[in-house]
Write the structure tokens for this entry.
Amino acid sequence: MHPRDQTIFALSSGRAPSAIAVVRVSGAQAGFVLTTLTGKQPAPRQASRRLLRDNAGQPIDDAVVLWFPGPGSATGEDVAEFHVHGGRAVLAALLTEISLIPNARAAEPGEFTRRAFENGKLDLTEAEGLDDLIHADTDRQRRQALRQLQGLLGDRARDWRERIIEASALIEAGIDFSDEGDVPAELRAPAMKAIRSLHEEITDALAAQGHSERLREGLVVAIAGEPNVGKSTLINQLARRDVAIVSPHAGTTRDVIEVQLDLDGYPVTVIDTAGIRETDDPVEQEGVRRARARAEEADLVLWLVEGEQAVASDAMRSLRKSEGAGRTEGPVWVVRNKIDLGGAGPGGEFGISASRGDGIPELVEALVKFAAEFFGTSEVALVTRARQRDLLSQALDSLRRSLELVEDGEELVAEELRAAAYALGRLLGRVDVEDVLGAIFQKFCIGK
């Protein structure tokens, strides 16, 4: 039996113990599972209280069950849900009983959502939005993911694809009637008008995104500088808890420490790096190497100096990537710490006291403003993943070539339009996407 023909089950709620746990079952045997454990099948889409019993007739739990016959279910298959008390023993007994049902097996990560996709309940962009929604840590991430789940990109892509196919049909009709005088020209004109309009719309959609894909991962800010200037104290201030060891001894931080922050809904990862200096200690050398590597990848570097100490410009510049390598390097902000011990820096620098908290609100406000500018128009972003951007770019390139080739023959234009429609089909997951499905759905949690 093919795995897709088997009935799958999994715990779909949080890890036990919990007040209530939800176990989902999807597949042809879902109704049989429900009847076996409860004695009779409840009315569709109505919560029913049932005593669950094992195959020996012994009670498992007093539960609430739900029955969703396909195709009117989340996966498009028959689905049963068991809402039980969330103790480990209850769940173990229930899952054991379900596993004894013929052709029932534990679900793999993302398998419920994959079945929903394969049964036409959602397209691939909506599935990606669901995954992003599950993993959203901030309110802005949640809103962006929810828009994708509700079809923000999918609906536009379906409309674009339908219009490309309509234009392609006109072009190909012109090829079929090429011996009918002015008929091909009459068909070609509305087709090329539609193609130009599509080209403009997709161009605008790609140009307006800014760093919207990065909202899923968050902004990366590295705190760097020489040893013992207060980097760990600063990250503790930003995190409002002790995540780094604070010590007056140089070289305390030997590795890279990360903390996830929510700054006004923007996800920000702040990295506390090892103090950058020359050292003979092999362990500290490794810490410095890792610090340089992470700072090179950061979107923003906070270079910490002590009081009126001169900025080590060579060391600061060495953290940034060489020109033309990788993504565009981010700026470096000079932050003068311990202003209680010395004076604040000149204009354009930040003066703080990491130990007392002076200047921290102003620094956080600047970070929020930087994040807002960095993520740009992500509030209305269509594109949230590199895969989506790449396929939209492929479709756009094919549309551009079709406009350039119009004088060379309808056959070449038709071929480019087929390529554009194919790229949008891959974006939606409706044509030839088997190679990417595993990579997408295996990142889902089990039970979703």
Observations:
- Residues 152-176 form the longest helix (25 residues).
